[in-house]
Amino acid sequence: xxxxxxxxxxxxxxxxxxxxxxxxxxxxxxxxxxxxxxxxxxxxxxxxxxxxxxxxxxxxxxxxxxxxxxxxxxxxxxxxxxxxxxxxxxxxxxxxxxxxxxxxxxxxxxxxxxxxxxxxxxxxxxxxxxxxxxxxxxxxxxxxxxxxxxxxxxxxxxxxxxxxxxxxxxxxxxxxxxxxxxxxxxxxxxxxxxxxxxxxxxxxxxxxxxxxxxxxxxxxxxxxxxxxxxxxxxxxxxxxxxxxxxxxxxxxxxxxxxxxxxxxxxxxxxxxxxxxxxxxxxxxxxxxxxxxxxxxxxxxxxxxxxxxxxxxxxxxxxxxxxxxxxxxxxxxxxxxxxxxxxxxxxxxxxxxxxxxxxxxxxxxxxxxxxxxxxxxxxxxxxxxxxxxx
Length: 389
What we know:
Elements: H1 9-18, E1 33-36, E2 39-40, E3 48-50, E4 53-57, H2 58-64, E5 68-72, E6 77-81, H3 85-90, E7 98-102, E8 107-110, E9 113-116, E10 122-124, E11 127-131, H4 132-138, E12 141-146, E13 151-156, H5 166-177, H6 184-187, E14 191-194, E15 199-203, E16 210-214, H7 227-237, H8 244-253, H9 262-272, H10 282-298, H11 305-321, H12 327-339, H13 343-346, H14 349-355, H15 357-362, H16 366-374, H17 381-387
Helix pairs in contact: 5-8, 8-9, 8-10, 9-11, 10-11, 10-12, 11-14, 14-17
């Protein structure tokens, strides 16, 4: 179904204009978030809007809603069940929601009943994409779109109270649009990164005299930023603590606008995502992580090869700066370490592992992650092993 309610056609048009996805595929700068019960999804392909219907990667949305899926490559059909195979084997009448979708077919089935889709599932950039609202509502969830924040929030009906109050979202939107909000266009140019990402300087308003300096940021032996140091950077840049929520969202949503200062933008997101004095809410923290992970893995389509490499390395540094890290971000960096051949990009990996070593070890699959990490042969293997001691 259309991501926007039928009773809000005018809103649908407005939001469609605000989020200009193409019918073929989203570009890396077209970032929009999807959260399920408050948890932001890490998507291999950005959501795509086609004729008012939002499509998202199949596996991510079904699994987030508690369903298991089976893919039939011969018929290009996905079958999802909320009950496990074992439960259905033991009791065919066990409580279950069954959804069947076929690529390029606008007829679906929900518990055996035919349902007509406004747009069929499609394969886009190698990803199987399914209609978000249809899947969510078939699984008993609600869907809400917040245009200014550019986030789609999905929640089980018994967890709707986890969705932000629309009035709070409106207030946040108002803050973003206020003239008093930190002037990104001018102030981000006061933040300087040098020596392959290893120096942070904040200049004064005339951009002539440094008022804050830290060196060797991406040295793998470098200490993490303290809460006080994060606030020092914000103070030097003139960022008010009541503005950081709106600022973080604005940075995420406007990478294209500020792409000339992409290193500084990514770095600032890492610094803001730090807790303590500089404290984002859980959802915004995870949106920032998902955004940076996406740039780390997929880059930015308008950059040349050298700029792509700098962006990816800077994303690793930014993730290392974050005080709290998600299991999905950990997995993404581990995968990058396993597969990336460019040593310039990988130079920041030991820093990331050192800063988050304790968290990695505490994860339920921590030992498996360590085995995978130690199994990688690279010029940084010794540094990585030392970082994880």
